[in-house]
Amino acid sequence: MENIIIGVAIGFIPMLVVLIVQYSKHATKAKEHKQEIARLRSMLTDRMDLESDGLSKLKGEIADLKAQNENLRISLRTYAQKPGRKEVSRLHVYQQAADRLTINSPGFGAAWQAALKESEDEFEKTFYGIQPFIRRVIPLKSSDANVVGRLEKDQD
Question: What is the reported pLDDT for 42?
Fold first, then answer.
């Protein structure tokens, strides 16, 4: 019976050594896994913090740009409502139409230039010379301004 106890002891000792070695390897791997998980968690939280900061900055920029866009839209609308803007835009349309006619119609250019020169001379005379004096002294019943005003009201 002594031999059996010695045989069991001889078998039990190596088994115990192997068990201790395996347990230490398992404990070491578990510690490494915990460290890796902690490292990955810290990386994830850092990345989430950075992304949330970036996202909040982008949201702030979007809000600022929306506010600027609204301010510009309001400013543009009020600028368009200022006196004389409709007339200026209408003059731009007329100028583009005259330029197209000058390019597309061969006989129109010379006649247009002559009419333009005469109109400029007449317009200049209305500010300098005797015509402004006469207009101030003798008011006309119907003027070109009244006709233009009526045309714009009819078009609106």
Answer: 96
Q: Return d(Cα 139, Cα 40) in angstroms, integer.
A: 90
**Stated pTM of the model:** 0.37
Greatest CA separation for the chain: 150
Q: Contact, 131 vs 124, CB < 8 A?
A: no
Domain ranges within the chain, ordered by starting residue = 1-82, 85-156
Q: Tokens standing for 38? A: 């902690």
98 CB-contact burial (10 Å; exposed 0-12 / middle 13-18 / buried 19+): middle
Q: For residue range 109-131, list pLDDT tens digits in order.
A: 777 777 777 777 776 766 666 66
134 token code pair: 């006469």
For tokens 């609204």, name the residue.
Answer: 70
CA dihedral 53, 58, 64, 65 (to 10 degrees): 170
